[in-house]
Write a structure and sequence with these properties.
The chain folds into five domains: 224 residues, Archaeosine Trna-guanine Transglycosylase, Chain: A, domain 4, CATH 2.30.130; 92 residues, Methane Monooxygenase Hydroxylase, Chain G, domain 1 (Up-down Bundle); 178 residues, Rossmann fold, CATH 3.40.50.300; 100 residues, Helicase, Ruva Protein, domain 3, CATH 1.10.8.60; 196 residues, 2-Layer Sandwich (Ribosomal Protein S5, domain 2). It is elongated and about 135 Å long. It contains 38 helices and 24 strands. The longest helix has 53 residues. With 928 residues, the chain is α/β, with parallel strands linked by helices. Its EC number is 3.4.21.-. One of its GO terms (cellular component) is mitochondrial matrix. This is Lon protease homolog.
Length: 928
């Protein structure tokens, strides 16, 4: 515990009252002359009464007996010692009111007892177990409001200044519920003959006054008796020795601790009339009063009745005080020893600078820094506006103190100006043939992206000038949007820099921070130019569809200036505050969806959509890129470990049904890791053989992963087969939808909820995790089929009475979009006509209430699902004919595509063999 904290433990110190200040000094603050006179007279009476000895050696209290009942105050911080003035704070409103009434009636004696738990803020005693039994009898001298409580305005409170007089012992506690008569009889002290003849003092009232106060305010009153010091021989050598030790200890501590010295002087002045050093009892109490020891240690001194024991306890307290004072001095010296050499070095360095300045040989680091900045700027082609700002900041830097904060801020700013690539450009090669080769090496497919880059290179070659371009690649995760950016940079021989804006909500990340802020720095775009050291890099801005917005601005709005070819030739970053030309930068942005990109920002970019890969493309990517990379990463590239085509096909179809190849890559890496473990387990202990022997052992290893043993490496299939029905029953048709993982086949099932009769109520219910658009598509299909049946099969009254349940299996997969409208109508008509649909027919298309078939999206992804299924006939909207034509021939192999524009064509293909009479009478046996 530090000295400051130990001194702060004094309640007198915390209240702004010097420790040991006598009562008459405190009363000087009262401006009333009469109050000063009364207070002085009262204190003089109490002192004379304290110092007067009776014949039996006891110290009587004026107007009191050796046993009495009075108000007891719990003390929370440290005990009070006889003969000294102290203060305590009273917060309990009932106790405050009782004290004020007692003072008004000149009943100013109270008992002070230390609580057993130091941190327990006890406002009023309720049990003897809460306090130590030995305390002090004290006289209230002054009351004033507590300043700390007044400032906090938490609750009322008063500070009570008390003059401690003698030791007392609490022997009982009377609660206000007891009878006044019983309290009066139990509170009588052992009266002496002279006391019985004393006349009652009219100013102090009756003896039952204290009990009445306690009963009135609900405060327990303590029954106490005085505690007399044990007799001792003043000439005892041991007592003389301990007293001398205490006095010597005073001198040692006073030389080390200035605060202790001040308190020693103050208390000594207040005890001039009491022969302090000739009275061992008073000397021990004096030592304890000076100490900042723990409350329980001071309580031991207070409870010591034997003089030798009291002196020994006081001496122990002072020894600890001396140890703390020595430790504090030692720590101070150690700190001074560290600070002093540094101060001396600083003084000498300052002198050396002045000498060098007078001689003209100043070679300080500041001048060296200025020369370095000038040398860097000389290698750059700064624009005139930037050069002007640079010169001004450099001149400012030369005049600043290197130890100042502004010097560091200016130095950082000048450093950024000299690290920008002013006029620095990398050499580009506009070779179409080489660019095509690079793009094909890194990526399979992506024809639209590759064509755009080749067109860009051709234009640049013909114009013999370079222009920055802004491209936005949109597609599902894992299709290679980010990696294709690196390939484009390699094809153009441009330096590459990438940063993501997903979740970005601070505009300062794009535009930079103001220089006035601590830790300010430029935005991401300026950081990219500094990193690549060229004005014409390729910067990839990832996840641009996930930009956030908050109270710190809208980053998407800041990107408008960056990505606008008309104004990014003078982009101004908040930190640099000079125009920067971004027109030569080629920006490529990536996004998963276009819908969440703000329209003004989307308008400034050329959007290229990357659809998911089909099975053939995934197979080619796996064989050409993923498998060789995984073998090399696992150390199996030179070993006979093969992943067969049928295993890859199974892996693509049943394990990684996604638009991209990210999941496929993870599965392939897992397979080769398992294979590596198998190789090590087979060669076992022979791994430590010489290189030639180990190579021969590895040559014997042969592992083949095929569709039969694939399960041993990656477990069971994640996705089941799409083929649910070998022969579809009436009411079931196969459709195609696009989900987050790509295209998939979905069966639409329609069944009767209840038996059909003339009393049935028609209706339809829908299940299968259908979203809003698909729900509307269901309603449209239901309306259409009722109209269709009324027109073509008027005698079939199925929809007039049927309660139908329509379901799309796969509840865990959310489904949305209008492309299942044609399939739902077909399933409902199949149930109404009791005619099954050809199981080899798959269909997609949006249906209107008049039977028109409209265009759908995701044609390529849905075609992948058709290839996975056993369907051989695909019905699709006539407006999607162009999408069908663009498909590679290997995708269309084995599938007959039938474009349709109205549902009549679909009906002829699905139910062409149905006779009119059979359709009319399908449910006649139940509805006749």
């Amino acid at each position: 515990m530090t000295l400051e904290r130990r001194i702060a433990r004094h309640p007198y110190r915390s209240l702004g009252i010097p420790m040991g200040v006598p009562a008459y000094r405190r009363w000087k603050t009262d401006k009333s002359p009469q109050s000063k006179k009364d207070a002085s007279n009262s204190l003089q009476k109490s002192r004379s009464a304290t110092e007067t000895k009776s014949k039996n050696g006891k110290t009587p209290i004026p107007g009191r007996e050796d046993r009495m009942k009075l108000l007891a105050l719990p003390i929370n911080h440290r005990p009070f010692f006889p003969g000294y003035v102290g203060a305590t704070v009273v917060k309990d409103n009932r106790v405050i009111a009782a004290i004020e009434e007692m003072v008004r009636h000149k009943q100013s004696l109270v008992g002070l007892f230390l609580v057993k738990e130091e941190n327990h803020d006890l406002g009023m005693m309720s049990s003897l177990d809460q306090v130590h039994r030995i305390g002090t009898l004290a006289q209230i001298t002054t009351l004033f409001p507590n300043q700390q409580l007044m400032q906090s305005k938490s609750r009322e409170g008063i500070t009570v200044v008390l003059h401690s007089q003698k030791r007392i012992k609490i022997i009982g506690l009377s609660h206000p519920e007891e009878e006044v008569k019983q309290e009066s009889s139990s509170s009588k002290l052992n009266e002496t003959a002279s006391d019985k003849q004393q006349k009652p003092d009219p100013e102090k009232g009756s003896k039952s006054f204290v009990l009445d106060v306690g009963k009135r305010y609900g405060i327990p009153m303590a029954e106490i008796q005085t505690v007399q010091d044990a007799a001792y021989d003043l000439n005892d050598a041991d007592i003389h020795e301990k007293s001398a030790d205490i006095v010597a200890m005073f001198k040692q501590i006073a030389t080390l601790n200035m605060a202790f010295r001040e308190q020693l002087v103050n208390l000594s002045l207040s005890q001039l009339s009491s022969n302090l050093y000739g009275n061992p009892n008073r000397l021990a109490d004096f030592a304890a009063s000076l100490s900042t020891a723990e409350p329980w240690e001071l309580q031991k001194v207070l409870e010591a009745i034997q003089i030798k024991k009291r002196l020994q306890s006081a001496l122990s307290v002072l020894r600890k005080e001396l140890t703390h004072a020595k430790l504090q001095v030692k720590i101070s010296k150690q700190v001074d020893s560290r600070i002093t050499p540094r101060q001396r070095e600083s003084y000498l360095e300052e002198q050396l600078k002045n000498i060098q300045k007078e001689l003209g040989t100043d070679t300080s680091s500041q001048d060296a820094l200025l020369r370095e900045f000038k040398m860097k700027a000389g290698k750059l082609a700064m624009p005139p506006t930037v050069q002007k700002v640079f010169n001004e900041e450099l001149a400012k830097l030369a005049s600043l103190d290197p130890a100042g904060v502004e010097f560091n801020m200016t130095r950082n700013y000048v450093d950024w100006l000299t690290q920008m690539p002013w006029g620095q450009q990398s050499v580009e090669h506009y070779d179409v043939k080489r660019a095509k080769q690079v793009l094909d090496e890194d990526h399979y497919g992506l024809k639209d992206v590759k064509d755009y880059i080749l067109e860009f290179i051709a234009v640049c070659r013909l114009r013999k000038s370079v222009q920055g371009k802004i491209i936005c690649l949109v597609g599902p995760p894992g299709v290679g949007k980010t990696s294709v950016g690196k390939s484009i940079a390699r094809a153009l021989d441009r330096r590459f820099y990438q940063f993501s804006v997903g979740g970005l909500a601070d505009v300062a990340e794009i535009k930079g921070h103001r220089r006035t802020y601590v830790g300010a720095m430029p935005g991401k775009v300026i950081q990219a130019l500094k990193k690549v050291h060229t004005e014409n890099p390729l910067i990839l801005i990832d996840e641009i569809d996930k930009v956030g917005a908050g109270y710190q601005g809208d980053p998407s709005a800041a990107l408008l200036e960056v990505l606008d070819p008309e104004q990014n030739n003078s982009f101004v970053d908040y930190y640099l505050d000079v125009p920067v030309d971004l027109s030569r930068v080629m920006f490529i942005c990536t996004a998963n969806v276009v819908d969440t990109i703000p329209a003004p920002l989307r308008d400034r970019m050329e959007v290229i959509e990357l659809s998911g890969y089909v099975e053939e493309e995934k197979m080619a990517i796996a064989e050409k890129y993923l498998v060789p990379a995984a073998k090399k990463a696992t150390g199996l590239e030179n070993l006979n470990v093969n992943l067969t085509k049928d295993a890859l096909s199974t892996l693509i179809t049943y394990y990684s049904r996604e638009s991209g190849v990210r999941s496929l890559k993870k599965y392939i890496e897992k397979i080769f890791r398992k294979a590596a473990l198998k190789v090590v387990q087979e060669i076992g202990e022979d791994v430590s053989l010489p290189n030639d022997a180990a190579s021969k052992m590895l040559e014997k290893v042969s592992i083949e992963i095929n569709s039969h043993n694939l399960k041993e490496y990656i477990g069971s299939a994640t996705f089941p087969t799409d083929w649910m029905y070998e022969t579809t029953p009436p009411g079931v048709a196969m459709g195609l939808i696009r989900t987050n993982t790509g295209g998939t086949c979905v069966y639409v099932e329609a069944v009767l909820e209840s038996s059909l009769s003339l009393k049935s109520t028609p209706g339809i219910s829908k299940t299968g995790h259908m979203d809003a658009v698909m729900q509307e598509s269901t309603d449209i299909s239901y309306t259409f089929v009722k109209s269709f049946m009324a027109t073509n099969y008027p005698k079939n009254r199925f929809f007039d009475k049927a309660r139908i349940h329509l379901n799309c299996p796969g509840i865990a997969v959310p489904k949305d979009g209008p492309s299942a409208g044609m399939t739902m109508a077909t399933a409902l008509l199949s149930l109404a006509l009791c005619e099954p649909v050809n199981p080899n027919v798959a269909m997609m298309g949006e249906l209107t209430v008049t039977g028109k078939i409209l265009q759908v999206d995701g044609f390529k992804e849905k075609m992948v699902a058709v290839k996975r299924s056993k369907a051989s006939i695909l019905l699709f909207p006539e407006e999607n004919q162009a999408d069908w034509d663009e498909l590679p021939e290997q995708m269309k192999e084995g599938i007959r595509g039938v474009p349709v524009s109205s549902y009549n064509t679909v009906f002829d293909i699905c139910f062409g063999s149905l006779k009119q009479e059979d359709g009319e009478n399908a449910w006649s046996h139940l509805l006749s």
